[in-house]
């Protein structure tokens, strides 16, 4: 008597588990690098011998370049492909992270962090767009929830690990770690298949569509306000606590809640989308 093995059915989302893990890792390391500097500003300033207002420029330059490069990477991915943009940006981000770790002065660090922000800006947007291009709309919620969970976890881990490593080991290690993982992902993402893209009549055609939509202006205004409140407030919270004499273990507890809370909420939503009950 012979038995036949049923062929393995593709995952319900249409996205291989390996591909989803790589996308989650890219978003995680991007958010880790983005939020790791805030708890370290005072430590880095003391080690480099520069005042806190000067070191704040490293965070400000990072966030500014991160935001400005979002539409640039979006237009580039429409032209050359999502995977190609992610791999190129992660390779550049790895190089900028290593330069940040080896910085010998404030100027070198500020410039390196700005370049890192410009390159890491592509990871999250491109990974979300990749899911949108490859996963059917009716089953898209679960992979998107998993991505958002990884993004929030990257924020939470950065605010905890960065402050502890900078205080007890070295702030240079905190910048080097995202560089190592970004370099790995720049190579590993070659496993992802490039999704099909609809041809656009011109490079700036998507920009004109966005600028003509009133809802897009509303969304951008809300995002601008949210970014100003969250990034502006959280960037200075940990340094302000430490400058007031707060112990290092306490100054990392307040900012980490901004990542821990969304991570728990998104973990619950992932369970709900799978038919489970919230914990």
Polypeptide structure, described:
This protein is an all-alpha fold and 279 residues long. It contains eleven helices and no strands. It has helices at 17-35, 41-48, 52-80, 82-101, 106-134, 141-168, 171-188, 205-211, 214-243, 248-251, 253-273. The longest helix has 30 residues, at 214-243. The protein is globular, with a radius of gyration of 20 Å. Residues 4-10 and 262-279 have low confidence and may be disordered.
Global geometry: globular
Strand % is under 5%
* N→C terminal distance: 46 Å
User: Rg to the nearest angstrom?
Assistant: 20 Å
Total strand segments: 0
What structural class results from the helix and strand content? mainly alpha
Note the main sheet.
Answer: none
On the 0 to 100 scale, the average pLDDT is 81
Write the element-wise H/E pattern from the N-terminal end onward: HHHHHHHHHHH
How many helices? The count is: 11
The proportion of residues forming helix, as a percent range, comes to: over 70%
Unreliable stretches covering 5 or more consecutive residues: 4-10, 262-279
């Amino acid at each position: 008597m012979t038995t036949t093995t049923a062929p393995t059915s593709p995952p319900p989302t249409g996205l291989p588990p390996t591909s989803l893990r790589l996308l989650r890792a890219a978003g995680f390391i991007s958010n880790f690098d983005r939020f790791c500097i805030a708890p370290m500003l005072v430590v880095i300033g003391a080690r480099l011998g520069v005042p806190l207002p000067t070191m704040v420029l490293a965070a400000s330059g990072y966030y500014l370049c991160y935001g400005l490069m979002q539409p640039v990477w979006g237009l580039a991915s429409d032209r050359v492909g999502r995977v190609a943009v992610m791999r190129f940006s992660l390779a550049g981000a790895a190089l900028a992270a290593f330069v940040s770790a080896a910085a010998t002065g404030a100027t070198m660090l500020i410039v390196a962090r700005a370049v890192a922000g410009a390159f890491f800006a592509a990871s999250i947007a491109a990974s979300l767009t990749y899911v949108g291009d490859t996963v059917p709309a009716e089953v898209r919620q679960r992979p998107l929830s998993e991505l958002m969970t990884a993004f929030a976890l990257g924020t939470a881990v950065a605010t905890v690990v960065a402050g502890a490593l900078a205080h007890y080991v070295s702030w240079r290690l905190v910048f080097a770690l995202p560089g190592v993982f970004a370099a790995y992902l720049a190579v590993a993402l070659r496993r992802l298949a490039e999704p099909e893209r609809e041809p656009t009549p011109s490079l700036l055609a998507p920009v004109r569509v966005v600028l003509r939509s009133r809802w897009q202006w509303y969304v951008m205004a809300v995002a601008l306000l949210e970014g100003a409140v969250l990034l502006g407030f959280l960037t200075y919270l940990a340094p302000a606590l430490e400058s007031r004499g707060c112990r290092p273990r306490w100054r990392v507890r307040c900012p980490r809640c901004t990542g821990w809370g969304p991570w728990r909420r998104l973990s619950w939503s992932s369970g709900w989308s799978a038919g489970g009950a919230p914990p």
